[in-house]
Amino acid sequence: MKQIVSLLLFLTLAFGAGNTLPDLKLKDLKNTSQSTQELTQGKITLINFWATYCVPCRKEMKHLNRIDQSYQKQGVQVIGVAIDDSRTVGRVKSLVRSQKLQYLILLDTEQTFYKNFSTNAMPFSILVDAEGSIIWEHTGYIPGDEVTMEDEIKKAIKEQQTSG
Q1: What residue numbers bound the domain in which 111 lies?
Q2: Mind listing the pLDDT tens digit for each residue in 130-162?
């Protein structure tokens, strides 16, 4: 029994699901400091970590934009977190403009937010429920991953409706 409890604890810690979103302050593109917990409070939030030099990240963005627009009325939002460092962060605004991104973009140039998760790959997405618990994580992007993302969002919406 002790081994099963230890294994479950390890899996929860290793994979993040069930953990609470850390509360950090990050700057947006207007240089305004934003709290991760305040931004996500009461909303199902898909947080996507990306960088300007990441080709799969750029391919995923049009889907994230559509997801953000499609599910806003159901209390869902997308937040992009650019993890570009001080050398490449200057490219973020022009990429956001060229991709016509309409969801909130935060800057994590020191990767203080990103380092809270057990990954070093991009893109990396987490889904946070309205109470701030991480309920799903996904690493990478290949065409079709957006379908899985939407399925997870729909599950979270359904869960929120049945528990609320």
Answers
A1: 24-163
A2: 999 999 999 999 999 999 999 999 999 999 888
Nearest to 105 by CA among 122, 125, 80, 124: 80
Domain count, the chain: 1
Instruction: Say how many C-beta atoms besides its own lie within 10 A of residue 35's C-beta.
Output: 12
Contact 85, 20 (CB under 8 A): no
CATH number at residue 119: 3.40.30.10
CB count within 10 Å of CB 124 equals 23
What tokens were used for 40? Answer: 């996500």
Q: Is residue 111 part of a domain?
A: yes
Within a domain: 10: no
- Whole-prediction pTM: 0.88
Closest alpha carbon to 156 in 1, 17, 2: 17
Residue 100 backbone class (left: φ over 0; alpha: ψ -120 to 50; beta: rest): left
